[in-house]
Amino acid sequence: MSANEDQEMELEALRSIYEGDESFRELSPVSFQYRIGENGDPKAFLIEISWTETYPQTPPIISMNAFFNNTISSAVKQSILAKLQEAVEVNLGTAMTYTLFEYAKDNKDQFMENHQPVNSTIPISSIISVETPNTAPSSKKKEKKEQLSKAQKRKLADKTDHKGELPRGWNWVDVVKLSKTGSKEDE
């Protein structure tokens, strides 16, 4: 069989085996990801396997560069990849994607025994302390009174009396206008 026929058969087998498995993801017909461990498990990791054109006669490309693996130290990643490469050498020439995923699942605890979570993100407390000084000046700006132009001040002064109050009846409705429109409706 040619490499393409082997790949098509393995692709079909992977789709049927992992159908409905949330840990498995087909990125393309020649690239797959599998999450080893449950969601929320600090020792969970993600393996990505990509087939070359001549796979399975040549080894696939195995990667752990997914964002999901950011908390895993590079030493642990290298250790896992080295152990997976050993499994690749043993299975060279045969369909091995399923075998590699299962090997990783079976040996997860051994792979992650030296795992100490690496904190590659900024702690929330430092984000808060960085943002706190920036919010103080903006609140001062909000307290600042609005500046009016001369024309706006003049209009406001014309509406109010010398004490700054509006004259009595400024918002009253013209009763005469209402009575005229009301009488037309009555007829």
From TrEMBL:
InterPro entries: RWD_dom (IPR006575), RWDD4 (IPR042770), UBQ-conjugating_enzyme/RWD (IPR016135). Residues 155-166 have a biased composition (Basic and acidic residues). It holds the Pfam family RWD. Signal peptide: none annotated. SUPFAM superfamilies: UBC-like (SSF54495). It comes from Enhydra lutris kenyoni. Residues 9-111 form the RWD domain. Residues 129-167 are annotated as: Disordered. This is RWD domain-containing protein 4 isoform X2. It comes from the Eukaryota.
